[in-house]
């Protein structure tokens, strides 16, 4: 069951800098992110931050658009059907997953990049809160 | 383990969490008069030419950290594939990691296609990666190799643009090296003549640019054979001391001698075996 509410989809395409650090009461976490200012909320800390956050999503969109132009409408539909099928049988969001099926579909099982070298999620020092992550995924947040 | 309230799982790659904090720290540091530590750059002369049988890549061997020479004999010609090598100028860490990642990618690609990798493939992979990071990865590369279509030489700039040329130079000493190339390059040169030309070009960079120095490394790539000559020419040998300040025993006359033996008593012996499990 993988329904995404509209709000969570919007967050994917329009990332807001300070949202990640809100504790459930809605108050900014000064210890983690420092004092707030309007500039900090709107502008990213680094010019590459936004483009890197959306890189995978944008690459997929470009691939599907190219494939639609070359091979016709059926091609992206079939590809997206396979992606959704692979996502449907995935684990709950807070559990570690090798993403083998998705990697194979995307072709990233045969390439290595900075996402494999730096910041390995298996070595992450922080744990995602299970309830929060499930609520986000179901769009109830 | 602290619980962080994130809505999505953490993915790998670059993390920009500390950028705002770093900007604030940098601003404060300049106010107090401290300088932010400089990254180690290669401030370099690298070059490559196409000659009759293949490619010759040349590089100097100095790595600088601001105004200090950090490494007098660093290796700037990196392995990408058995038939493809790449010289790197710019930030040393960026060139190392970029060439290693592309080398791994090319190996996986070659295993998947079952063929010897092409230089154009490495070029495209590099330019797509560098463009993705918009020049923030400071790696200026000279990529050369011999594949099924013949010898190929590319220069790749940090923002992702590339040029396919018969002779290229990059780095802070690139103008000096290019001056040598422009006056003496000919198409289809012989091996010895070509090696001398590359050596002179790098020497031009070494002697006329502060960011380049020490020795000259060469890499000759021909069809089926790679000759990695390190060092090809030690242009800057460290001087040998001509004098010696060690004095022989008996140079100074001994006036008096006083020997005081220290008596130490063994109080106890205790053996503790080392935990080598």
From TrEMBL, chain A:
GO process annotations (BP): proteasome assembly
Entry-linked Pfam families: UMP1
Lineage: superkingdom: Eukaryota
Keywords: Chaperone
A GO cellular-component term linked to this record: cytoplasm
Keyword Chaperone recorded: yes
Bilayer-spanning residue ranges: none
Family that this chain belongs to: Belongs to the POMP/UMP1 family.
Name the UniProt record assigns to this protein: Proteasome maturation protein
Source organism: Muraenolepis orangiensis (Patagonian moray cod)
UniProtKB/TrEMBL annotation, chain B:
SUPFAM superfamilies tied to this protein: N-terminal nucleophile aminohydrolases (Ntn hydrolases)
Keyword line: Cytoplasm, Hydrolase, Nucleus, Protease, Proteasome, Threonine protease
Subcellular location: Cytoplasm; Nucleus
Active site: 44 (nucleophile)
Chief localization: cytoplasm
Single GO molecular function: threonine-type endopeptidase activity
PROSITE patterns xrefs: PROTEASOME_BETA_1, PROTEASOME_BETA_2
GO cellular component: cytoplasm; nucleus; proteasome core complex
Catalyzed reactions: Cleavage of peptide bonds with very broad specificity
Source organism superkingdom: Eukaryota
Record InterPro entries: Ntn_hydrolases_N (IPR029055), Pept_T1A_subB (IPR000243), Proteasome_bsu_C (IPR024689), Proteasome_bsu_CS (IPR016050), Proteasome_sua/b (IPR001353), Proteasome_suB-type (IPR023333)
One BP term from GO: proteolysis involved in protein catabolic process
Domain Proteasome beta subunit C-terminal stretches: 235-270
Signal peptide range in chain numbering: none
Homology family: Belongs to the peptidase T1B family.
Function: Component of the proteasome, a multicatalytic proteinase complex which is characterized by its ability to cleave peptides with Arg, Phe, Tyr, Leu, and Glu adjacent to the leaving group at neutral or slightly basic pH. The proteasome has an ATP-dependent proteolytic activity.
Subunit structure: Component of the proteasome complex.
Name the UniProt record assigns to this protein: Proteasome subunit beta
Organism whose genome encodes this protein: Muraenolepis orangiensis
Upper lineage: Eukaryota, Metazoa, Chordata, Craniata, Vertebrata
């Amino acid at each position: 069951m993988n329904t995404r509410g509209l709000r969570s989809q919007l967050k994917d395409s329009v990332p807001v800098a300070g949202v990640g650090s809100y504790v459930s009461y809605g108050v900014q976490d000064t210890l983690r992110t420092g004092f707030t200012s309007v500039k900090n909320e709107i502008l990213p800390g680094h010019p590459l931050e936004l483009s890197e956050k959306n890189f995978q999503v944008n690459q997929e969109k470009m691939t599907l658009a190219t494939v639609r132009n070359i091979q016709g409408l059926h091609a992206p539909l079939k590809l997206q059907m396979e992606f959704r099928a692979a996502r449907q049988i995935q684990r709950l969001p807070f559990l570690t997953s090798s993403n083998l099926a998705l990697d194979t579909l995307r072709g990233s099982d045969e390439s290595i990049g900075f996402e494999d070298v730096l910041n390995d999620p298996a070595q992450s020092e922080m744990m995602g809160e299970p309830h929060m992550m499930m609520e986000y995924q179901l769009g109830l947040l | 383990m602290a619980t962080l309230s994130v809505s999505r799982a953490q993915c790998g790659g670059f993390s920009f969490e500390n950028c705002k904090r770093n900007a604030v720290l940098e601003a404060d540091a300049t106010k107090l008069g401290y300088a932010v530590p400089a990254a180690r750059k290669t401030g370099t002369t690298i070059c490559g030419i196409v000659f009759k049988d293949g490619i010759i890549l040349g590089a100097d061997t100095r790595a600088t950290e601001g105004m200090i020479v950090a490494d007098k004999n660093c290796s700037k010609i990196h392995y990408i594939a058995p038939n493809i090598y790449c010289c790197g100028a710019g930030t040393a860490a960026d060139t190392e990691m970029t060439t290693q990642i592309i080398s791994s990618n090319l190996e996986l690609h070659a295993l998947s296609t079952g063929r010897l990798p092409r230089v154009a493939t490495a070029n495209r992979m590099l330019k797509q990666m560098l463009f993705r990071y918009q020049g923030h990865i400071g790696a200026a590369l000279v990529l050369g190799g011999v594949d099924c279509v013949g010898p190929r030489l590319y220069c790749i700039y940090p923002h992702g643009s590339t040029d396919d040329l018969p002779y290229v130079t990059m780095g802070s000493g690139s103008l000096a090296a290019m001056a040598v190339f422009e006056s003496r390059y000919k198409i289809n040169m012989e091996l010895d003549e070509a090696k001398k030309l590359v050596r002179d070009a790098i020497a031009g960079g070494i002697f006329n640019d502060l960011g380049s120095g020490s020795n000259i490394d060469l890499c000759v790539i021909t069809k089926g054979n790679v000759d990695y000559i390190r060092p090809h020419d030690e242009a800057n040998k460290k001087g040998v001391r001509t004098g010696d300040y060690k004095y022989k025993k008996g140079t100074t006359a001994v006036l008096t001698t006083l020997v005081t033996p220290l008596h130490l008593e063994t109080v106890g012996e205790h053996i503790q075996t080392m935990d080598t499990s």
